[in-house]
Specification:
The structure holds two protein chains of two kinds.
Chain A: H1 2-12, H2 16-19, E1 20-26, H3 42-50, H4 57-67, E2 72-74, H5 82-96, E3 101-105, H6 109-126, E4 133-134, H7 141-150, E5 153-156, H8 158-164, H9 172-176, E6 178-183, H10 191-210, E7 216-220, H11 227-235, E8 240-242, E9 252-257, H12 269-282, E10 287-291, H13 294-309, H14 313-317, E11 319-322, H15 328-340, E12 345-349, E13 363-367, H16 373-380, E14 390-395, H17 400-407, H18 409-413, H19 427-440, H20 445-452, H21 455-465, E15 469-472, E16 475-478, H22 484-487, E17 497-502, E18 505-511, H23 512-518, E19 524-527, E20 530-538, E21 543-548, E22 554-574, E23 577-597, E24 600-606, E25 612-622, H24 625-633, H25 638-656, E26 664-672, E27 677-684, H26 692-698, H27 700-712, H28 738-749, E28 761-762
Parallel strand pairs in A: 2-7, 2-8, 3-5, 3-6, 4-5, 6-7, 9-14, 10-12, 10-13, 11-12, 13-14, 17-21
Antiparallel strand pairs in A: 1-9, 15-16, 17-18, 19-20, 20-21, 22-23, 22-28, 23-24, 23-25, 25-27, 26-27
Helix pairs in contact in A: 4-5, 10-19, 12-13, 19-21, 24-28, 25-27, 25-28, 27-28
Chain B: H1 7-26, E1 31-33, H2 38-43, E2 47-49, H3 50-66, H4 72-75, E3 78-83, E4 86-96, H5 104-112, H6 123-131, H7 137-140, H8 147-159, H9 162-172, H10 178-182, E5 192-199, E6 207-216, E7 219-226, H11 233-243, E8 250-253, H12 260-270, E9 281-283, H13 284-292, H14 301-307, H15 322-332, H16 338-364
The chains are: A alpha/beta, B alpha/beta.
């Protein structure tokens, strides 16, 4: 068997062997079939019978629960047949009640199109008049009325829904009869974007309520640590969780491959990946390779083809890159070649994990940890054809997260710690949606408290003083001069937006903090795999002018951070140490930037930008005097230890709280504020906060212990990018003392006899 | 329960009001284009020439100075009206209007002689039928092939439901056919309701002024329901709809099929008010277009009133700038900016009525 051959190679080859740090084997599983509580409509039953489809246990469980009107979240893996699990109850209901409507929300066009095909086919076969239609930005004006009136299944996306809600009068037949809202790939709706979607969903439910319907939700997500909490935060409803996968799979091999096994790597991660790729295809394994950027995709493809060319031109031609921008015809061509077997390897960015049906292949190579376990599992899920053996190899990069997993495989293969965050308390985000809601129907404090909680009474008066809403006896009316849905975007925190322009073309938009940090004059920026240099950042017009470049250096800003605690909202004691969560005001000052080639600093330039002040949420903790004494007594550097601990915690926070390390900021000090105490702060990098620090505060003990494990087990001498060096340290990674860090972290997570894991003390809570 | 917002909360909130005000304020629904930029004006209706724009902004400043300190009632002669939805302000004026004598016999003759109203009868067939002596629809009742279809049409005509008749004429000819306009002849003058609205934007924002014209004792009475406060909108809506609640009202607008009426329906549904269904609607934009399509470069009401009625407006502001004038009033309390809005709207209603009678008179006047 080809997979065995490759595994043998990995074991025998002197270069590969030491790099393989762990192989996790999962025994094959047979299918576990289930049964339905109630029989299906005949047309559906015969559809299943004629296509030889037997329903798996999780599909039956989901279908049973959905049919009793419950809200369900399904977290079984990709390719486990989730789509059928939600389509069956919808079609069944439609067969019984022809006026039923269902709304399906997808994050991408490709997925929407694929789903339309599935629905159309099912409708055709069963004769159930679903008339599925896509209603989004591309739907021509002439078709819109017909879809609103005749389609029973409407496929759309959040951006379109955001606009459509103001037209609810035209949609009344849909909203009055809406029975199901299906949200696929729901894990995408987390973080800041998730907050927007959560509020959009509340606006939708409010309108459904007005028209007298109470639709049930079906959410499909990848595996996360907090599915029920996430689903409730996203929709405001209670859910049931379907997780046990009944679909069959063959024997799985998951290899953790570390080019930095001995602390130093000879070659870069991606070159190592290229070698593995060649070995795979030479062993006749159709392989899918994921990388983190377009540039890497191109490079690996190019190197692999070069290498393969030495064997044969045909082999070289059987390797192809896949990019998000491909036309449908190109996608089809790749899919076809893969099916036919003429294509042996496809190299892609992580974007592929969403959509396009390349089916399953023999092997999956993941070059660099994609940022979340969730993404990793989704990518790995592509390995293994029906019942066949599969191989996944994760090739680690030299950074803390990747290296942490390489040294702690049990953490990697254990259950998910990753919490998907959706925070609905950020006033900047809520206020925008309140404006939209007021423009849809007058806002009434009594009726609408269910959807927007206390924010109504806190925020509406503020909006009124800006002349945007008006309180009347019929409720709060939207009175703004421009359309609310035009002013409110579903992306980002409203605030000053900067636009990046190249030759008159808009590349992307950034908020102010990002602009100062990543797009100051002289900065090198990456956008969709291309490199640009910032020529000008205009603070008045908010325009950033860039030109393409291919320099071989990159830049890193230097910043000073000041922080003021505004309000302590919660506190708890962890291992004798006081930990707090609350509102802070952060002032970041970008004073200059480093110019670096690889890891060497080749230059330093000053910057003159005004200080950036914003209010956000943070957690902080004050090491006890005991802990201080231990460090000083051991002759170690306290500031260096605090700083190292701060970096380690930030580096591993994404393990517990799904975010990017760039979404959070930190500050450590041996002597802070009036009291002169040592302290470490970690704050949300977004004005108003988005729930990251808040969740981390909840799981602090776990966070401390993972950070401790990381630094303790790192093979380096004095600290390295794999443990306490941070790529975004504004202080140039000074001062850092690895030993002090280990000591402090050990203290933070040492559990004493009287385990101090009491419930956090809350001074206020906003949950709705 | 976060009952006592903390100091920090209050300070965040201060920024929110200002932040959204600035954002929403900076979005405009029109483009200011260089004078003579023909392309700019061609692609969308929503452009304002920069000279007009500058003039209007200067006018706004003048108004603010001129009416500084004046109260609402100092400037506008009107009274509050009350209904189930609350109160709103009504400015009333009246204007002499040359009525017409509608040649109802002439119209009846035209419509009953139009054999093409019958399904299956085109121009050619009509010629043949007339040559054979079938002059009217009633004659066709005896025709072997067309008698059934003809009966349907004759019945409809005798019921006299003008919405159905306009539909029929629209299906067989076009919605802007003179016969469709002619069905107005079945109404008494007091049935016509001339409506023009001013809004805060292109949709999903409040209507700030409802101009309603009705014929009372041979005069055109214009009632303008003006929002002193956004909270008055519902009352103003109800007051306007009351004019359409009679037994047989007939709505007349200019571009109302695309704009004014759907807009009103949208605001009705915003407040949860059911609209009356199937009100006969004469949209003068369509009839004007058909009549004067190749004669004038612009068929806007302001252009037609100049060419046909000889009316020239002084000190007018572009319609697209009404929202910012009104918003200035809301923000500052200075009623000056409202003056041109009210004037503009009044003239719109008057010109609409004059245009209506002019065109009706042209086709079917005696």
């Amino acid at each position: 068997m080809a997979v065995d051959d490759l595994l043998r190679l990995l074991n025998v080859n002197p270069v590969y062997r030491p790099r393989v740090v762990h192989i996790e084997e999962t025994e094959p599983e047979l299918a576990d079939y289930g049964s339905l509580d109630k029989p299906l409509d005949e047309s559906l039953a015969s559809y299943l019978a004629q296509n030889n489809i037997r329903l798996y246990s999780h599909q039956c469980e989901a279908i049973n629960r959905i049919r009793t009107g419950r809200n369900v979240i399904i977290t079984t893996p990709t390719a486990s047949g989730k789509t059928l699990a939600f389509n069956i109850p919808v079609f069944d209901q439609l067969a019984k009640e022809p006026e039923t409507r269902a709304l399906y929300l997808y994050p991408t066009k490709a997925l929407s199109n694929d789903q339309l095909a599935v629905h159309t086919q099912l409708a055709k076969f069963t004769g159930i008049a679903a008339n599925p239609g896509i209603y989004d930005g591309d739907t021509p004006q002439s078709k819109r009325a017909a879809i609103r009136e005749h389609s029973r299944i409407i496929i759309s996306n959040p951006y379109e829904l955001h606009q459509v809600l103001s037209w609810h009068a035209k949609w009344s037949p849909v909203f009055s009869n809406l029975k199901y809202i299906v949200i696929d790939e729901a894990h995408r709706y987390r973080g800041v974007f998730g907050s927007h979607i959560a509020l959009l969903i509340r606006r939708l439910l409010r309108i459904c309520d007005y028209y007298g319907s109470t639709p049930a939700f079906v959410l499909s997500t990848a595996t996360i640590a907090n599915p029920l909490e996430f689903a409730t935060k996203l929709t405001g409803r209670q859910f049931e969780h379907v997780e046990k996968d009944g679909s069959p799979h063959g024997k799985k091999h998951f290899v953790l491959y570390n080019p930095y096994f001995d602390g130093t790597g000879e070659r870069a991660t991606h070159q190592e990946t290229k070698d593995l790729l060649i070995s795979c295809i030479k062993n006749d394994l159709q392989t899918l390779c994921f990388t983190g950027s377009r540039k890497m995709t191109e490079l690996i493809t190019a190197w692999a083809r070069d290498d393969a060319n030495r064997t044969s031109a045909r082999l070289a031609n059987s390797i192809s890159a896949y990019r998000a921008g491909y036309l449908p015809e190109d996608r089809r061509a790749i899919e076809r070649h893969l099916k036919e077997g003429t294509m042996k390897a496809v190299v892609s960015t992580n974007a592929l994990e969403l959509g396009i049906d390349v089916g399953s292949l023999d092997a999956v190579l993941i070059s660099g940890f994609p940022g979340t376990m969730m993404s990793t599992r989704q990518q790995a899920g592509r390995a293994g054809r029906k019942g066949g053996e599969s191989l996944t190899v994760l090739v680690a990069q030299a950074n803390p997260l990747d290296q942490y997993f390489m040294r702690h495989p049990d953490q990697f293969f254990g259950s998910s710690h990753e919490n998907a965050i959706v925070d609905i308390t950020n006033p900047y985000i809520i206020s925008g949606h309140l404006l939209c809601a007021a423009a849809e129907l007058p806002l009434r404090e009594d009726n609408d408290k269910e959807f927007f909680g206390d924010s109504l009474q806190n925020i509406l008066p503020e909006l009124e003083s800006g002349n945007l809403v008006r309180k009347t006896s019929h409720g709060w009316i939207y009175a703004g001069r421009s359309r609310a849905t035009e002013a409110v975007s579903l992306d980002g925190i409203p605030g000053e937006t900067y636009r990046i322009i190249c030759s008159g073309r808009l590349l992307e938009t950034l908020d102010r903090a990002q602009a100062y940090r990543e797009a100051h004059k002289g900065a090198i920026m990456l956008h969709q795999g291309e490199t640009y240099i910032i020529n000008e950042l205009d603070l008045e017009t908010h325009i950033i002018k860039v030109t393409p470049t291919d320099v071989d250096y990159y830049t890193q800003p230097l910043k000073e951070v000041d922080l003021v605690i505004l309000d302590e909202l919660e506190s708890r004691v962890v291992n004798g140490m006081k930990c707090c969560f609350g509102d802070v005001e952060v002032t970041e000052r970008y004073t200059g930037y480093k110019i670096k080639r690889k890891d060497t600093i080749i230059g330093l330039e000053p910057l003159s930008l005004p200080p950036l002040s914003f209010r956000t949420k943070a957690f902080w903790f004050v090491p006890s005097t005991d802990m201080e004494q231990k460090v000083i007594g051991a002759g170690l550097d306290l500031p260096g230890g605090l700083h190292g601990a701060e970096h380690a915690i930030i580096a591993l926070m994404p393990l517990h709280v799904m975010c990017d390390r760039w979404d959070i900021g930190g500050l450590s000090s041996p002597s802070f504020g009036e009291r002169g105490e040592p302290v470490i702060f970690v704050y949300d990098g977004f004005e108003g906060g988005v729930g990251l620090a808040e969740k981390a505060f909840e799981v602090l003990p776990d966070l401390f212990s993972t950070a401790y494990n990381l630094v303790r087990d790192c093979g380096c001498e004095d600290g390295c990018p794999s443990c306490i060096y941070s790529p975004k340290c504004g202080n140039d990674n000074q001062p850092l003392d690895k030993e002090a860090t280990i000591l402090l972290l050990a203290e933070f997570c040492r559990t004493s006899k009287n385990e101090c894991l009491e419930k956090p003390v809350m001074h206020g809570s906003v949950i709705f | 329960m976060n009952v006592n917002p903390t100091m920090a909360d209050t300070q965040i909130q201060t920024r929110i009001g200002a932040l959204w005000q600035q954002r929403i304020h900076s979005l405009r629904e029109y483009e200011v284009v260089r004078d003579g930029n023909v392309f700019g004006s061609g692609f969308s209706n929503n452009c304002v020439y920069s000279s007009e724009y500058d003039l209007a902004r200067r006018y706004l400043d003048r108004l603010m100075t001129q009416y500084h300190g004046d109260s609402f009632l100092d400037i506008f002669a009107g009274h509050d009206i009350f209904n189930d939805a609350g109160a709103c302000f009504c400015i009333q004026s009246s204007v002499e209007i040359p009525g017409i004598k509608f040649n109802i016999d002439g119209f009846r003759h035209d419509i009953i002689s139009d054999l093409t109203l019958v399904h299956g009868v085109g121009e050619k067939t009509q010629r043949i039928l007339k040559a054979r002596g079938y002059e009217t629809l009633e004659d066709l009742l005896h025709h072997p092939k067309f008698r059934t279809a003809a009966r349907e049409v004759v019945e409809q005509l005798s019921i006299g439901n003008s919405v159905d008749m306009m539909d029929l004429i629209g299906n067989r000819h076009s919605r802007s056919h003179p016969l469709a306009l002619g069905t107005a002849g079945f109404y008494e003058p007091d049935a016509f309701v001339f409506i023009d609205i001013e809004t805060m934007g292109l949709f999903s924002r409040p209507i700030i002024l409802f101009g309603v014209g009705t014929i009372e004792r041979k005069k055109l009475v214009v009632r303008q329901y003006l929002l002193r406060d956004i909270a008055d909108e519902q009352a103003a809506l109800v007051a306007t709809m009351e004019h359409l609640s009679g037994e047989k009202p007939a709505l007349v607008t200019f571009n109302g099929k695309s704009f004014d009426f759907p807009y009103i329906l949208d605001r009705l549904s915003y407040y949860g008010i059911r609209p009356r269904s199937r009100i006969p609607h004469f949209d003068m934009l369509h009839f004007s277009r058909r009549r004067w399509k190749n004669e004038f470069p612009s068929l806007r009401l302001s252009a037609l009133e100049k060419e046909i009625l000889g009316i020239v407006r002084e000190e007018d502001i572009p319609g697209q700038m009404v929202p910012e004038f009104y918003e200035t009033y809301l923000r500052t309390g200075n009623c000056g900016p409202l003056v041109p809005i009210v004037e503009h709207n009044k003239q719109d209603v008057v010109s609409l009525a004059l245009l209506f009678f002019h065109l009706l008179g042209e086709s079917y006047g005696c």
